[in-house]
UniProtKB/TrEMBL annotation:
<keyword id="KW-0648">Protein biosynthesis</keyword>
<keyword id="KW-0479">Metal-binding</keyword>
<dbReference type="Pfam" id="PF01327">
    <property type="entry name" value="Pep_deformylase"/>
</dbReference>
<comment type="function">
    <text>Removes the formyl group from the N-terminal Met of newly synthesized proteins. Requires at least a dipeptide for an efficient rate of reaction. N-terminal L-methionine is a prerequisite for activity but the enzyme has broad specificity at other positions.</text>
</comment>
<feature type="binding site">
    <location>
        <position position="105"/>
    </location>
    <ligand>
        <name>Fe cation</name>
    </ligand>
</feature>
<protein>
    <recommendedName>
        <fullName>Peptide deformylase</fullName>
        <ecNumber>3.5.1.88</ecNumber>
    </recommendedName>
</protein>
<dbReference type="InterPro" id="IPR036821">
    <property type="entry name" value="Peptide_deformylase_sf"/>
</dbReference>
<feature type="binding site">
    <location>
        <position position="151"/>
    </location>
    <ligand>
        <name>Fe cation</name>
    </ligand>
</feature>
<feature type="active site">
    <location>
        <position position="148"/>
    </location>
</feature>
<feature type="binding site">
    <location>
        <position position="147"/>
    </location>
    <ligand>
        <name>Fe cation</name>
    </ligand>
</feature>
<comment type="similarity">
    <text>Belongs to the polypeptide deformylase family.</text>
</comment>
<dbReference type="InterPro" id="IPR023635">
    <property type="entry name" value="Peptide_deformylase"/>
</dbReference>
<keyword id="KW-0408">Iron</keyword>
<keyword id="KW-0378">Hydrolase</keyword>
Amino acid sequence: MILPIVAYGDSVLRKKAEEITKDYPNLNELIDNMYDTMYGAYGVGLAAPQIGLPIRLFLVDTEPFSEDESHTEEEKQQLKAFKQTFINAKILEEEGDEWAFNEGCLSIPDVREDVFRQPKIKIQYQDENFETHVKEFDGLIARVIQHEYDHIEGVLFTDKLSSFKKRLIKGKLANISKGKIKIDYKMKFPLMKKKR
């Protein structure tokens, strides 16, 4: 089932999310619904706060990036094969020289900006079976994980922009929170006037 994605301006996007246990109600159904929601919006990642739940759960599927011709064959195969659910994740290390990549966010449609992040991460997380893993990722996979991880920490990619860039997009962000935007997926806007 496709769920509405919470738009910029909703306080749930600013909360540090809570850990969950394996008896979280309807967890498998929730994960399935989140994948449906992400694919329905043509996303490569989605975090639970983006559907209004302040819990430490996000998912990533980098397959759409595998079609980019700038990648080597090996990179394309890695991106095509990477699909993972992350529960109670904790980034343990980030390393390497920061690099810029043009990021967007399903909660902030029509805003794309270059964001600097470190290329390598080590992360501890549980999968959908609550088995614990500690893994290292790099490149685009690491970046998507970092972006989604920020969501469960209450951080948005726009927070990482320079104050000049933030001023430039201020009007756009205000319009998004009021629902003054055209999108082709379901969204929930915090500041839309309720019709009586």
